[in-house]
Amino acid sequence: MLDWLSLFVRWFHVIAGVAWIGASFYFIWLDNNLRTPPDWKKQKGIKGDLWAVHGGGFYEVAKYNYGPETMPETLHWFKWEAYSTWLSGMLLLGIVYYHGAAVYLIDNQVMAMSANEAIWRGLGLIFGALLIYEAACRSALARFPTLFGLALLVVLLTLTAYLAAHWFSGRGAFIHVGAVIGTIMAGNVFFKIMPAQRQMVHAVANKLPIDPAWGAAAKLRSVHNNYFTLPLLFIMISNHYPMTYQHPDNWLVLVAIGIVSAWIRHYFNLKHLGISRPSILITGALGMLIIAYWVAKPLPSVEQNLQTNMESAAIAPLSELETHVMTIMQTHCANCHSAQPSDDIFVVAPMGLMFDSWQQIESRAAIIHQRAAVSKDMPLMNKTNMTEAERQVIATWFQQLSQH
Question: What are the residue ranges spanned by the domains of the chain?
Fold first, then answer.
């Protein structure tokens, strides 16, 4: 039932995220494509307008300098897209990475810790980054939007990526940086964008002056959210591409992709303003190619580490049960999960898991048991024909290991 809950929450999270990011893209595009209206519209207080055709009809959009003469009965607010995305994302984080901390979050080769410690570190990273961001937004640094944006993207992203990568598994680190970004984005809606809009609506409804600072602060947060979208979307799909999060310098990989993807987003924002800068796309594409080459470049120490792992496995005496498990893993799993996979599809170890030595196998006992003996979705499509008896051997071994 937990798997079904995870499925439905993930499905809802993706739907809500599409609605939220789609709305973000649309309103940035809309704001950047407004044109100077004719005089008769200016007299009605309209600041900019836009005509569009879609779904077999024409649409006229107008943005008021102050507000409509009479507040409409129905006023659409865009907030639940953000709130539902964040709430479902945090629920999914709890189901997958916190409930299954021993499987997906903790990597003893990175840092040995209990499940409770890992959870508290994860929550501390997420909400600690939010507090730092909010404090920075309310400081004098926010008066310099460009400098502030660069500092936010580079410094905060680098710091959170570095800490996460040195605390958690590669996959767990990436998803926590994504949770930090998503929390900041939802916080922008909750703490600044919505309050500013409520102040504006109240002022217009009561014929009071509008403070320009309300809109300026909300716009700054909206722009931040807009540049965060592409890095966040990458993180959402990154668990399918272990060559990124299993790299020895995975935090640098994440920072590099985040910066380059935000730079590419800048091209489209300028394009909406009628400014064409193809050099941004060219340099962005080159940046991605450089990252891909760097990540794909073989590490010179792989063969040496593999030999060391094999030697260490030979030194430590194994029990009869452990020897049986070792044979099962080498027969059914090490063709993919190895420093040098022999599988015809996977050229890097999925999820960064390598089972070349007994030490590696024993340190990842929880995830081996979960995937091979409980959910039984590994080996992938059971292409190596692992038997039920072999799965039971793994279950027995893990049960004995857990009792020690």
Answer: 78-296, 313-403
What gap in Å lies between CA 236 and CA 239, rounded to an integer? 7
Contact 14, 111 (CB under 8 A): no
Q: What is the pLDDT of residue 303?
A: 46
- What is the H or E stretch that residue 51 is in? strand 46-54
For residue 233, what are the CA distances in angstroms to 169, 178, 277, 327? 20, 9, 23, 40
List phi, psi (to 5°) of 345: -110, -50
Residues 6+ apart with CB under 8 A from 339: 302, 303, 305, 306, 309, 349, 354, 356
Query: For 205-224, how does the pLDDT look when each residue is reduced to its tens digit (9 = 90+)?
Result: 888 888 888 878 888 888 88
CA atoms within 13 A on the CB side of 223: 20
Q: What is the pLDDT of residue 310?
A: 47
**Crossing angle, helix 157-165 and helix 170-188, to 10 degrees?**
150
Q: Quote the CA–CA distance of 67 and 312 in Å, as a whole number.
A: 73
Helices within 169-301 (DSSP H only): 170-188, 194-205, 212-237, 242-245, 250-272, 278-296
Using 70 as the pLDDT threshold, list the residues of the chain that sit under it.
298-316, 351-352, 404
Q: Is 387 left (phi over 0), alpha (psi -120 to 50) or beta?
A: beta
Distance between CA atoms of 163 and 368, rounded to whole angstroms? 26
Phi and psi, residue 372, nearest 5°: -95, -35
Residue 191 carries which DSSP code? I
**Considering the entire predicted model, what is its pTM?**
0.78
Identify the residue whose tokens are 């569009």.
Answer: 52
Q: Which residues partner with 61 through β-bridges? A: 50
| Region label for 351, one of left (φ > 0), alpha (ψ between -120 and 50) or beta (otherwise) | left
DSSP 62: E
**Residue 98 burial (CB count, 10 A):** 18
Smallest CA-to-CA distance from 349 within 383, 380, 395 is with 380
pLDDT of the residue at 299: 59
At residue 54, what is the residue type?
A: H
pLDDT of residue 306: 47
